[in-house]
Protein backbone atom coordinates (compact mmCIF):
# COMPACT_ATOMS: atom_id res chain seq x y z
CA UNK A 1 0.00 0.00 0.00
CA UNK A 2 1.35 3.48 -0.84
CA UNK A 3 2.14 6.05 1.84
CA UNK A 4 -0.66 8.33 0.59
CA UNK A 5 -3.24 5.53 0.74
CA UNK A 6 -2.20 4.85 4.35
CA UNK A 7 -2.44 8.60 5.03
CA UNK A 8 -5.99 8.65 3.64
CA UNK A 9 -7.06 5.71 5.82
CA UNK A 10 -5.41 7.08 8.96
CA UNK A 11 -6.72 10.61 8.56
CA UNK A 12 -10.14 9.22 7.59
CA UNK A 13 -10.61 7.78 11.10
CA UNK A 14 -11.27 10.98 13.09
CA UNK A 15 -9.57 10.29 16.45
CA UNK A 16 -6.56 8.45 14.96
CA UNK A 17 -6.29 11.15 12.29
CA UNK A 18 -6.13 13.96 14.85
CA UNK A 19 -3.60 12.04 17.00
CA UNK A 20 -1.43 11.16 13.98
CA UNK A 21 -1.43 14.75 12.71
CA UNK A 22 -0.58 15.99 16.22
CA UNK A 23 2.32 13.52 16.51
CA UNK A 24 3.72 14.48 13.09
CA UNK A 25 3.37 18.18 13.94
CA UNK A 26 5.20 17.71 17.25
CA UNK A 27 7.96 15.67 15.61
CA UNK A 28 8.41 18.39 13.00
CA UNK A 29 8.63 21.10 15.67
CA UNK A 30 10.97 19.30 18.05
CA UNK A 31 13.18 16.98 16.01
CA UNK A 32 12.97 17.65 12.27
CA UNK A 33 15.58 19.66 10.40
CA UNK A 34 15.21 20.28 6.65
CA UNK A 35 18.97 20.39 6.16
CA UNK A 36 19.56 17.10 8.03
CA UNK A 37 16.70 15.40 6.18
CA UNK A 38 17.93 16.36 2.70
CA UNK A 39 21.59 15.79 3.46
CA UNK A 40 20.95 12.26 4.70
CA UNK A 41 18.52 11.54 1.87
CA UNK A 42 21.11 12.50 -0.77
CA UNK A 43 23.97 10.84 1.14
CA UNK A 44 21.93 7.62 1.23
CA UNK A 45 21.72 7.60 -2.57
CA UNK A 46 18.38 9.42 -2.81
CA UNK A 47 17.64 12.14 -5.32
CA UNK A 48 15.70 15.40 -5.64
CA UNK A 49 12.42 13.52 -5.99
CA UNK A 50 9.98 12.25 -8.61
CA UNK A 51 9.13 15.82 -9.68
CA UNK A 52 12.62 16.18 -11.18
CA UNK A 53 12.20 13.27 -13.63
CA UNK A 54 9.98 12.23 -16.53
CA UNK A 55 6.91 14.18 -17.63
CA UNK A 56 6.86 16.38 -14.54
CA UNK A 57 10.45 17.52 -15.06
CA UNK A 58 9.81 18.10 -18.78
CA UNK A 59 6.77 20.25 -17.94
CA UNK A 60 8.73 22.29 -15.36
CA UNK A 61 11.61 22.82 -17.80
CA UNK A 62 9.29 23.82 -20.64
CA UNK A 63 7.52 26.48 -18.53
CA UNK A 64 10.72 28.03 -17.16
CA UNK A 65 12.73 27.82 -20.40
CA UNK A 66 9.87 29.46 -22.35
CA UNK A 67 9.59 32.21 -19.72
CA UNK A 68 13.34 32.87 -19.77
CA UNK A 69 13.32 33.09 -23.57
CA UNK A 70 10.19 35.28 -23.88
CA UNK A 71 11.25 37.72 -21.15
CA UNK A 72 14.88 37.77 -22.38
CA UNK A 73 16.10 36.86 -18.90
CA UNK A 74 19.89 37.13 -18.68
CA UNK A 75 20.51 35.65 -15.24
CA UNK A 76 18.79 33.07 -13.02
CA UNK A 77 19.31 32.16 -9.36
CA UNK A 78 17.66 29.08 -7.84
CA UNK A 79 17.12 28.52 -4.11
CA UNK A 80 17.06 24.75 -3.59
CA UNK A 81 18.65 23.64 -6.86
CA UNK A 82 18.91 19.97 -5.85
CA UNK A 83 21.19 17.43 -7.45
CA UNK A 84 21.04 18.84 -11.00
CA UNK A 85 18.66 16.27 -12.55
CA UNK A 86 16.06 18.95 -13.30
CA UNK A 87 18.74 21.44 -14.27
CA UNK A 88 19.92 19.13 -17.08
CA UNK A 89 16.75 20.19 -18.96
CA UNK A 90 17.30 23.91 -18.45
CA UNK A 91 18.31 26.50 -20.99
CA UNK A 92 19.48 29.63 -19.16
CA UNK A 93 22.19 32.13 -20.20
CA UNK A 94 23.71 32.33 -16.68
CA UNK A 95 22.71 30.36 -13.60
CA UNK A 96 23.53 30.25 -9.87
CA UNK A 97 22.29 27.29 -7.84
CA UNK A 98 22.02 27.35 -4.03
CA UNK A 99 21.08 24.46 -1.77
CA UNK A 100 21.31 23.48 1.89
CA UNK A 101 22.69 20.03 1.00
CA UNK A 102 26.42 19.64 0.32
CA UNK A 103 25.89 16.22 -1.25
CA UNK A 104 23.32 17.61 -3.71
CA UNK A 105 25.67 20.45 -4.62
CA UNK A 106 28.60 18.05 -5.13
CA UNK A 107 26.47 16.11 -7.61
CA UNK A 108 25.41 19.26 -9.44
CA UNK A 109 29.00 20.53 -9.53
CA UNK A 110 30.12 17.21 -11.00
CA UNK A 111 27.29 17.13 -13.56
CA UNK A 112 28.05 20.65 -14.79
CA UNK A 113 31.82 20.74 -14.27
CA UNK A 114 32.39 21.66 -17.93
CA UNK A 115 29.59 24.24 -18.11
CA UNK A 116 30.96 27.78 -17.61
CA UNK A 117 27.44 29.28 -17.35
CA UNK A 118 26.64 27.58 -14.02
CA UNK A 119 27.82 28.36 -10.47
CA UNK A 120 26.90 26.58 -7.23
CA UNK A 121 27.06 27.65 -3.58
CA UNK A 122 26.07 26.18 -0.23
CA UNK A 123 23.11 28.06 1.25
CA UNK A 124 22.83 28.48 5.00
CA UNK A 125 19.67 30.48 5.77
CA UNK A 126 21.08 31.66 9.12
CA UNK A 127 24.31 32.94 7.54
CA UNK A 128 23.07 34.84 4.53
CA UNK A 129 23.18 38.64 4.29
CA UNK A 130 23.48 39.86 0.71
CA UNK A 131 23.42 43.67 0.86
CA UNK A 132 25.42 44.17 -2.35
CA UNK A 133 23.35 41.79 -4.47
CA UNK A 134 26.06 39.13 -4.85
CA UNK A 135 23.38 36.53 -5.59
CA UNK A 136 21.00 38.87 -7.40
CA UNK A 137 19.58 37.75 -10.75
CA UNK A 138 16.78 38.89 -13.05
CA UNK A 139 14.81 35.76 -12.20
CA UNK A 140 14.78 33.83 -8.91
CA UNK A 141 13.45 30.25 -8.95
CA UNK A 142 11.90 28.07 -6.28
CA UNK A 143 10.98 24.68 -7.77
CA UNK A 144 9.47 21.98 -5.54
CA UNK A 145 10.97 23.53 -2.39
CA UNK A 146 8.36 25.62 -0.53
CA UNK A 147 6.20 22.72 0.66
CA UNK A 148 9.33 21.10 2.11
CA UNK A 149 10.03 24.04 4.44
CA UNK A 150 8.32 22.77 7.57
CA UNK A 151 9.80 25.25 10.06
CA UNK A 152 8.24 28.75 10.10
CA UNK A 153 11.55 30.56 10.59
CA UNK A 154 13.20 28.59 7.78
CA UNK A 155 10.23 29.39 5.52
CA UNK A 156 10.34 33.11 6.30
CA UNK A 157 14.10 33.43 5.80
CA UNK A 158 13.86 31.48 2.55
CA UNK A 159 11.08 33.73 1.20
CA UNK A 160 12.93 36.93 2.11
CA UNK A 161 16.19 35.67 0.54
CA UNK A 162 14.40 34.38 -2.57
CA UNK A 163 12.48 37.57 -3.30
CA UNK A 164 15.38 39.91 -2.37
CA UNK A 165 17.55 38.07 -4.90
CA UNK A 166 15.18 38.73 -7.78
CA UNK A 167 15.53 41.94 -9.78
CA UNK A 168 12.47 41.33 -12.00
CA UNK A 169 10.66 38.02 -11.47
CA UNK A 170 10.22 35.13 -9.07
CA UNK A 171 8.87 31.82 -10.38
CA UNK A 172 7.54 29.48 -7.70
CA UNK A 173 6.47 25.89 -8.36
CA UNK A 174 4.65 24.70 -5.25
CA UNK A 175 1.36 23.78 -3.64
CA UNK A 176 -0.54 26.77 -2.24
CA UNK A 177 -2.85 25.24 0.35
CA UNK A 178 -3.17 24.67 4.09
CA UNK A 179 -3.93 20.97 3.71
CA UNK A 180 -2.08 18.88 6.27
CA UNK A 181 0.30 16.08 5.34
CA UNK A 182 1.49 13.10 7.35
CA UNK A 183 4.84 13.05 5.52
CA UNK A 184 7.30 14.66 7.95
CA UNK A 185 9.18 16.47 5.17
CA UNK A 186 6.04 17.98 3.61
CA UNK A 187 4.18 20.98 4.98
CA UNK A 188 1.80 22.69 2.60
CA UNK A 189 1.37 26.41 3.03
CA UNK A 190 -0.70 29.25 1.58
CA UNK A 191 2.48 30.99 0.51
CA UNK A 192 0.57 33.36 -1.82
CA UNK A 193 -1.25 34.82 1.21
CA UNK A 194 2.14 35.33 2.92
CA UNK A 195 3.43 37.21 -0.15
CA UNK A 196 0.30 39.40 -0.34
CA UNK A 197 0.76 40.23 3.32
CA UNK A 198 4.54 40.65 3.54
CA UNK A 199 5.79 41.69 0.10
CA UNK A 200 3.61 44.52 -1.24
CA UNK A 201 5.99 45.24 -4.14
CA UNK A 202 5.40 41.83 -5.68
CA UNK A 203 2.35 40.91 -7.71
CA UNK A 204 1.14 37.60 -9.06
CA UNK A 205 1.29 37.87 -12.83
CA UNK A 206 0.25 34.36 -13.92
CA UNK A 207 -0.60 30.97 -12.51
CA UNK A 208 0.13 28.00 -14.74
CA UNK A 209 -1.67 24.83 -13.73
CA UNK A 210 0.30 21.62 -13.73
CA UNK A 211 -1.24 19.21 -16.29
CA UNK A 212 -0.37 16.18 -14.11
CA UNK A 213 -2.28 16.76 -10.83
CA UNK A 214 -1.58 14.49 -7.87
CA UNK A 215 -3.87 11.45 -7.85
CA UNK A 216 -2.21 9.34 -5.18
CA UNK A 217 1.16 8.64 -6.83
CA UNK A 218 3.98 11.21 -6.67
CA UNK A 219 5.74 9.52 -9.60
CA UNK A 220 2.98 10.50 -12.00
CA UNK A 221 1.41 13.61 -10.45
CA UNK A 222 2.25 16.64 -8.36
CA UNK A 223 0.31 18.98 -6.06
CA UNK A 224 2.42 21.93 -7.33
CA UNK A 225 1.51 24.60 -9.89
CA UNK A 226 3.50 27.50 -11.29
CA UNK A 227 3.13 31.01 -9.84
CA UNK A 228 4.93 33.85 -11.62
CA UNK A 229 5.55 36.97 -9.52
CA UNK A 230 6.63 40.33 -10.89
CA UNK A 231 8.25 43.23 -9.05
CA UNK A 232 5.94 46.26 -9.30
C1 LIG B 1 12.39 18.35 -4.08
S1 LIG B 1 14.03 18.97 -4.21
C2 LIG B 1 13.87 20.03 -5.64
C3 LIG B 1 15.18 20.31 -6.33
C4 LIG B 1 15.09 21.15 -7.61
N1 LIG B 1 14.61 22.46 -7.35
C5 LIG B 1 14.24 20.47 -8.65
O1 LIG B 1 13.19 20.99 -9.01
O2 LIG B 1 14.66 19.40 -9.10
C6 LIG B 1 14.07 20.12 -2.86
C7 LIG B 1 15.43 20.74 -2.63
O3 LIG B 1 15.31 21.81 -1.70
C8 LIG B 1 16.45 21.80 -0.88
N2 LIG B 1 16.11 22.54 0.36
C9 LIG B 1 15.52 22.08 1.48
N3 LIG B 1 15.41 23.07 2.39
C10 LIG B 1 15.95 24.18 1.82
C11 LIG B 1 16.14 25.53 2.23
N4 LIG B 1 15.77 25.96 3.44
N5 LIG B 1 16.71 26.38 1.38
C12 LIG B 1 17.11 25.97 0.16
N6 LIG B 1 16.97 24.72 -0.30
C13 LIG B 1 16.39 23.84 0.52
C14 LIG B 1 16.78 20.34 -0.67
O4 LIG B 1 18.09 20.13 -0.27
C15 LIG B 1 16.46 19.78 -2.05
O5 LIG B 1 17.61 19.75 -2.85
Which terms summarize this structure?
single chain; 232 residues; alpha/beta; Rossmann fold; seven-stranded mixed β-sheet; 7 helices
> Would you tell me the structural class of the helices and strands?
alpha/beta
Radius of gyration: 17 Å
The average pLDDT value, as a whole number, equals 91
Helix-residue proportion: 25-40%
Number of H- or I-type helical stretches: 7
Order of strands across the biggest sheet? 3-2-1-4-5-7-6
CATH topology of the largest domain, by name, is: Rossmann fold
Characterize the main sheet. 7 strands, mixed
Order of helices and strands: HHHHEEHEEHEHEE
Q: Stretches where pLDDT falls below 50 for ≥5 residues?
A: none
Please state roughly what percent of the residues sit in beta strands, choosing from under 5%, 5-15%, 15-25%, 25-35%, 35-45% or over 45%.
15-25%
CATH architecture descriptor of the largest domain: 3-Layer(aba) Sandwich
User: Could you name the CATH class of the largest domain?
Assistant: Alpha Beta
Number of domains: 2
What do we call the CATH homologous superfamily of the largest domain? Vaccinia Virus protein VP39
Number of strands: 7
Termini separation (Å)?
A: 48 Å
Q: What ions, cofactors and ligands are bound?
A: S-adenosylmethionine
Shape: globular
Description:
This protein starts with a helix and ends with a strand. The chain has two domains: 31 residues, no CATH class; 198 residues, 3-Layer(aba) Sandwich (Rossmann fold), CATH 3.40.50.150. It contains seven helices and seven strands; from the N terminus they run ααααββαββαβαββ. Strands 3-2-1-4-5-7-6 form a seven-stranded mixed beta sheet, with helices on both faces. Helix content is 37%, strand content 19%. S-adenosylmethionine (SAM) binds next to helix 3 and helix 6. The site of S-adenosylmethionine has 24 residues, from helix 3 and helix 6.
Amino acid sequence: MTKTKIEKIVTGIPVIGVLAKGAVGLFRQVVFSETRYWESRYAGGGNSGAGSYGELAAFKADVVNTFVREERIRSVVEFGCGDGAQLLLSDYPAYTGLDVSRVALMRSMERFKDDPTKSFFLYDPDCFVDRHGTYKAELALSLDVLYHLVDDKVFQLYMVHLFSSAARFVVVYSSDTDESSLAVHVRHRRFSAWINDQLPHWQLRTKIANPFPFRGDLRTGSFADFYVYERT
